[in-house]
Specification:
The complex is a heterodimer of chains A (about 240) and B (about 850). Chain A is an alpha+beta fold. Chain A contains 4 helices and 10 strands; from the N terminus they run H-H-H-E-E-E-E-E-E-E-E-E-E-H. In chain A, helix 2 runs antiparallel to helix 3. The longest helix of chain B is centred in the first third of the chain and has 35 residues. Classes of the chains: A alpha+beta (about 240), B mainly alpha (about 850).
């Protein structure tokens, strides 16, 4: 027991030192998609831990109790109480609540038509082992580097040239697979200017580890400038 | 010498394995089950060593102990070995070992099939593992996603080793599944109704059914992928109208039920141990049975939760998300039934109970993260990160390994007759428990901090360093614990103190089979009065070996056990069980040659070996019924009931029907693939006109229908005792079947199918080959039946075998017309062809 406490303490400390931040941390969101998942994560973690410790304590108490004077009728009543209460009601209520709060979050992340305006489109094609980025209606071609404006929903249209990869920007939001012959759309948005790192999460061969990329989010004006410059250069 | 000793010696003459090398011909479930478990344990250690390699590589950032190529082989093989060569076989081995003893039978119902399954497992495992030592192991991850595992991106033989070797191993899983279903339903000792079955039997029954339905999709997927790799048939190639996602569906259609196939037997162990260590019957027996059956059903409806990031439609995601959460309900029912059992009982906290506690702790956490993962938006974040690695190890190690080791310590006295060391055992437990949580609890955080699965290293300073180091330290603590457990178990065989009879005061019959168990388990088969025979009829410990119950004649030299009604457990017939046989080993060896020659692509040798294997298997079926090696007419007949070969409803019929359920699942998977590609594959095209001649198919089908109808008619007459023209009629059926088969073969040969160019034609080819295989099997088996009528092995008094064969004809007929309708007519009706 003491060793376990020590282990937990070490883990907690190391977590505090490194913090929840980090270039790939889902716990340090920088966009609406990732941010909307975070409260779900913490709520689920807390409820799960509460259920877990509740069960362990009950279990330990049940072991120590050691009463055998229960008649069979009492045992029957107890059986129904435990099984119906703990086995059916508890999970049903928990799951219903989970879906009630969780489903809308998922729904909002989908690339549905916006109330006003349109999302900006960026095409991403995965190769072993790099990402080729292009912007429709421009001649801009990039590798492993994506430039986007902040506070603008971006629809990444993702496919693959060879094997299955998966496109993930942990601080901005969830991932989606890059599959040959299919195009998946992922909507992400960045709040602040800066650099965000992304990686491939579906094992895709020996270069899987190095298949990383970055997103550079600019303010609207900076992005326009960048677009002019890049587009201009390419058109030369 | 006492009477029971004399009886024992007479039984041993019939039930012993052959001496020396002859032990390889053993078919007895105790021997075979033990071999399964020992082999599985060795594979566990190999898989564990691979895990230590992974953790060593990931202990510090930017290490190059393993290069990316070797690392990918190591993690692929770690998953493959643990899932396919350890978890399933060792649980099946435990079931093979325990189930007959628990239901009061002398052996499993198809002993030669047990032995055959073991050899398929052993050879397949060796073949898969050999690739690792040659440095050419599969390296596309244990779920072998296409196109990474296809010929273009995995040109070496690694994927072939996986596809062929694992399919070979799966023969053993499916055959054990079939055998366990039939054994549990048809060979219980008299009086053991379904509701008086030990709870573990329910768990194993459901698990066995899940194997029967769950493995075929993967077997089909493996066959298709191997055909794509070896023969260029583009099932998963987008350009030619295939789709890589089809593989994922087929894989997880198997893969998710598999998780429960692994979990349920282990949960069954928990449900068996708790009543023994609380001295009170399990609370909520019926609730638990219901929950287990429900789990079995739900587990087939949630495979796509492994695929939430594939981009499947929103409605489907919602469905699979809900189904994945629903499975929490039957699991919660079991957890609370266990809790209630502890609540009402007086707990003896022995070593097995420590492992049960470890199970609860670890598994509940794994289950809770499972519910979290079922929530789609959260899944999108953590899918394919170390969070998932943590989750799956919590579920699998918690849900399987902990109860398994608890069960090991519980049944060890039964296996060896000795007690293990409580002290060493406790050290082993705490080291594994602490090491496990140190390794995997932290991995949840590593995953949330963004570390993906299957990266061979990581850079310093992204926040993953400390957590990975601690995880690696934890893994070596687990290894130390496992080492202590092994030392404990090995030493106890020599130094353990002699165990008293029924040392834990258990309620189930296996403890009356002797410690260590007698080869025949029970000298006499008792009538059971309750769910807890050894609590309510303690005299059984003495009266069974003394021969005071049923089926004690042995002078005829036959191995026999009772066959009973599947529901009431009433005595129906006496099952003849085959004795030691070399045929399983020989058949499995030829199949191993097939497997290896396919690997090295020498197809002529493969064909020869396959034919030889088929001949051996038909020889195997020949030594049945009235054959002199089985139970010819004129032998002394048993007193209690008819021998099953003298009836028309024996274990063989049940075996055939359950086998056909597996076969039907395979066919449905093929049909699913066809419809899936049609609906989803981006470049799927139906050809301008039908390449298969419909009139020819109709002609072929006509003959098949005639053959089946005629065969069914003969069987009907046979059951009524009319055998005047039996042989003649079987020859006619053979002839009709042969014409049907000839036309079918002509169709596949002459149709201009472009099997390497379009997925459409490749699927049609597989469908035709599937039909040919089944029709061919029916025709050959019927010809053999005609011969058996001539030799007198099938007759008015021996009507059993044609009855067994009838469902195969019906199945062949059903899949033929179903194929015509859905593969040929449906596209026409669509107006394309």
């Amino acid at each position: 027991m003491r060793i376990r406490i020590a282990g937990v303490t070490v883990a907690a400390t190391s977590l505090l030192i490194s913090g929840c931040s980090g270039p790939f941390s889902t716990l340090d969101p920088a966009g609406p998609a990732a941010r909307s998942v975070l409260p779900l994560t913490w709520t689920m973690v807390s409820v799960a831990l509460a259920i877990f410790f509740g069960l362990i304590l009950l279990w330990l108490y049940a072991i120590r109790r050691n009463r055998q004077d229960l008649s069979d009728e009492d045992a029957q009543r107890l059986q129904n109480k435990w099984i119906i209460g703990g086995g059916i009601v508890l999970p049903t209520v928990a799951l219903a609540l989970l879906l009630l709060f969780g489903a809308p979050v998922g729904h909002k992340m989908l690339p549905l038509p916006l109330d006003e305006g349109e999302a900006m489109r960026v095409d991403v094609k995965a190769y072993q082992w790099f990402w080729r980025i292009s912007y429709p209606d421009t001649s801009i071609q990039l590798v492993d580097e994506i430039h986007i404006p902040i506070n603008t929903p971006i629809d990444f249209h993702i496919t693959s040239q060879d094997v299955i990869h998966s496109f993930w920007l942990p601080r901005l939001g969830g991932k989606i697979d890059a599959i040959p012959g299919h195009t998946n759309v992922l909507r992400l948005e960045a709040d602040e200017a800066g650099e965000y790192r992304g990686l491939c999460t579906e094992y895709c061969g020996q270069g899987h580890t190095i298949m990383q990329f970055k997103v550079i989010a600019h303010s609207a004006e900076d992005f326009e400038q960048w677009l002019q410059k890049e587009g201009g250069q390419n058109n030369d | 010498m006492t009477e029971s000793q004399t009886l024992h010696q007479r039984f041993m003459k019939v039930w012993s394995n052959l001496p020396g090398w002859g032990t390889l011909a053993a078919v007895n479930h105790t021997t075979v089950g033990r071999r399964f478990m020992v082999t599985g344990a060795i594979f566990f250690l190999i898989g564990g060593l691979l895990a230590l390699l992974i953790r060593t590589q990931l202990a510090l950032p930017d290490q190059e102990i393993l290069n990316p190529d070797l690392y990918s082989q190591v993690f692929t093989m770690h998953g493959t070995v643990m899932m396919f060569l350890f978890a399933i076989p060792i649980l099946e081995g435990a079931a093979v070992y325990l189930i007959p003893k628990m239901i009061g039978a002398r052996d499993l119902i198809f002993p030669r099939l047990s032995a055959f399954g073991y050899y398929c497992y052993l050879f397949g495992g060796i073949i898969v593992l050999s690739s690792l030592f040659m440095g050419i192991a599969p390296s596309a991850g244990w779920f072998m996603y296409t196109p990474l595992s296809s010929a273009d991106y995995s040109p070496g033989p690694g994927s072939d080793f996986w596809l062929l070797g694992i399919t070979f191993v799966e023969i053993s899983s499916v055959s054990a599944g079939i055998e366990l279903v039939v054994a549990i339903l048809r060979s219980r000792t008299p009086g053991m109704t379904l509701s008086k079955m030990p709870i573990l039997c329910w768990y194993i029954l459901v698990t066995a059914f899940m194997i029967v339905f769950g493995f075929p999709p993967l077997i089909l997927g493996s066959i298709l992928l191997e055909l794509e790799r070896a023969a260029g048939m583009p099932f998963f190639d987008v350009a030619a109208g295939g789709d890589p996602i089809l593989w994922q569906h087929l894989f997880w259609l198997f893969g998710h039920p598999e998780v429960y196939i692994i979990f349920l037997p282990a949960a069954g162990i928990v449900s068996t141990l708790l009543p023994v260590f609380t001295g009170r019957p399990i609370v909520g027996y019926r609730w638990i049975v219901m929950a287990v059956i429900l789990t079995g059903f739900i587990s087939f409806g949630l495979w796509a939760h492994h695929m939430f990031t594939v981009g499947i439609p929103g409605m489907a995601q919602a469905f699979f998300s809900l189904a994945s959460m629903l499975v929490a309900i039957p699991t919660a029912i079991q957890v609370f039934a266990w809790l209630a059992t502890l609540w009402v009982g007086r707990v003896v906290f022995s070593l097995p109970m420590l492992w049960v506690f470890g199970f609860l702790f670890v598994f509940v956490l794994g289950g809770l993260t499972g519910v979290m993962l079922a929530l789609v938006p959260f899944n999108w974040q953590v899918h394919d990160t170390h969070f998932v690695v943590a989750h799956l190890h919590y579920v699998l190690i918690g849900g399987m390994l902990f109860p398994l080791i608890g069960g090991l310590y519980y049944w060890l006295p039964l296996i060896s007759g000795r007690m293990s060391s409580e002290r060493l055992g406790r050290w082993g437990f705490w080291l594994v428990f602490i090491g496990f949580n140190a390794t995997f609890f932290l991995m949840h955080l590593t995953g949330l901090l963004g570390m993906p699965r299957r990266v061979y290293t990581f850079s310093e300073g992204v926040g993953w360093d400390g957590l990975n180091l601690l995880s690696s330290v934890g893994s070596f603590i687990i290894a130390a614990g496992v080492a202590i457990i092994i030392i404990d178990v090995v030493l106890h065989f020599r130094f353990g103190r002699k165990a008293p009879d029924n040392p834990w005061n258990a309620d189930t019959l296996e403890w009356a089979a002797g410690m260590p168990p007698r080869m025949y388990n029970f000298a006499s088969l008792p009538e059971i009065k309750s769910r807890h025979p050894l609590w309510d009829q303690p005299e059984l410990m003495k009266t069974i070996p003394a021969g005071e119950h049923g089926l004690t004649q042995i002078e005829h030299g036959r191995r026999e056990t009772f066959g009973s009604d599947p529901v009431t457990g009433k005595l129906k017939e006496v099952m003849l069980l085959p004795t030691n046989s070399w045929l399983p080993l020989i058949a499995a060896s030829f199949l191993a040659v097939v497997c290896v020659s396919l690997l090295v692509r020498s197809y002529s040798i493969a064909v020869v070996a396959a034919v030889l294997a088929a001949i051996v298997l038909f020889r195997w079926s020949w030594e049945n019924g009235g054959h002199p090696k089985a139970a010819p007419l004129g032998d002394k007949e048993p007193e209690e009931a008819l021998l099953h070969s003298r009836t028309t409803d024996g274990s063989g019929l049940w075996g055939m029907v359950v086998t056909l359920l597996a076969d039907g699942a395979l066919y449905l998977a093929l049909l699913f693939g066809w419809l899936y590609l049609w609906a989803v594959a981006p470049n799927w095209t139906l050809p301008e006109e039908l390449v298969i001649s419909l009139p020819a198919m109709a002609l072929s089908g006509l003959f098949l229908t005639g053959a089946t109808w005629w065969f069914a008619g003969s069987v009907k007459k046979l059951k009524r005792g009319n055998v005047a023209r039996l042989q003649e009629e079987f020859w006619i059926v053979t002839l009709l079947g042969a014409i049907h088969l000839g036309v079918l073969i002509a169709i596949i040969v002459t149709s201009p199918l472009k099997v390497t160019e379009t997925a459409h034609d490749a699927v049609l080819f597989v469908m035709l080959a599937f039909l040919i295989f089944h029709s061919g099997l029916s025709v050959i088996a019927t010809a053999l039946q005609a011969l058996r009528v001539r030799y007198g092995y099938v007759s008015e008094r021996l009507p059993y075998e044609p009855v067994v064969l009838k469902p195969l004809w019906l199945f062949s007929l059903a899949i033929f017309w179903c194929s015509v309708a859905s593969f040929l007519l449906l596209p026409m009706a669509w107006g394309v062809a």
